[in-house]
Design a protein that fits this description.
286 residues, alpha/beta, Cobalt-precorrin-4 Transmethylase, domain 1, Rossmann fold, four-stranded parallel β-sheet, 12 strands
């Protein structure tokens, strides 16, 4: 059984930057992070081992450390300012590309466009963008456009972890709505996400017959990588750890494609790869 690794996978620079910030020696036992720094269980475990406290925004009144950190997914400006007004030292680990998304959405609104964010309304990144706008709509697909009706000038941005094809389909559907005179789309999907999606296309060209995608269950970009493979009718398995791999998944398979989301550390990828190699050796000998 062959194993081919995607040419682009694993942590992006924004995730690596956030992890490096939170793991500084001076933060041992002295830092509170509001939300999951990144959507990966191993990273969360390591932060807790480092003495970092992780809470939700509903628990901010319980903060007992002087230093707090905003996650890589960003947060609304008013929430960050409220922390500073309490005298807390705020460290912003927002990904620069998420910050660009915030700035772009505000720019469109300031220029007189009605902002539309293509993404998942309940995702923390999208919630952060909404919090900085006076009015907007969040749509997951062309079937969610009723909230856009009545606006003639539409500005569209995207959650950074989307695939470009569904987003452009939404843009086209908005342009076809009655009364819409202008649609301005600014592509805010991040390049590392696009690179990992392009790497899936390369894996598929190698004629894989089973896929393994590594990443947090709540990682949006990881789920989309899984969907890209399984959507081609190929058996695909989403795992967070090497221990989750089952030998039975690969019986009768000849070629595995391996990839990982942008929140997945390289050592986790290496552990899954080693386990796959061991399974392949067992099957080849059997």
């Amino acid at each position: 059984m062959r194993i081919t690794l995607a040419h682009a996978m694993g942590t992006c620079f924004g995730v690596e930057r956030a992890i490096e910030m939170a793991m500084r020696p001076e933060f041992v036992g002295r830092l509170t992070i509001i939300g999951q720094l990144v959507h990966n269980p191993q990273v969360i475990e390591r932060l807790r081992e480092h003495g970092v406290r992780i809470i939700t925004w509903d628990e901010v009144d319980s903060i007992s450390t002087e230093a707090v950190m905003i996650t890589a997914h960003g947060a609304p400006d008013d929430r960050i300012e409220s922390l500073r007004q309490r005298g807390l030292m705020v460290h912003d680990a927002s990904c620069p590309l998420v910050q660009r998304l915030h700035a772009t959405a505000r720019q469109l609104e300031d220029e007189g466009y009605f902002p539309v964010i293509v993404g998942q309304r309940d995702h923390v990144e999208v919630q952060g963008v909404i919090g900085n706008l006076r009015d907007c709509a969040v749509v997951a697909g062309p079937d969610d456009l009723a909230q856009v009706c009545g606006h003639s000038r539409i500005g569209v941005v995207s959650q950074t972890t989307n695939r470009i094809e569904p987003v452009t389909a939404v843009v086209a559907a908005i342009g076809a709505l009655p009364g819409v005179r202008e649609v301005r789309f600014i592509d805010t999907i991040c390049k590392p996400v696009k690179d990992r999606q392009a790497a899936i296309a390369a894996l598929l060209s190698h004629d894989i017959d089973v896929g393994v995608v590594i990443g947090g269950r709540n990682s949006s970009n990881t789920r989309k990588l899984f969907d890209m493979i399984s959507g081609q009718g190929i058996d695909c398995h989403h795992v967070e750890r090497a221990e989750e791999l089952s030998r039975a998944w690969f019986v009768g398979k000849r070629h595995v494609g391996l990839t990982a989301g942008t929140s997945t550390p390289q050592d986790v990828i290496a552990a899954v790869h080693r386990r796959l190699l061991a399974i392949a050796e067992e099957l080849d000998e059997g």
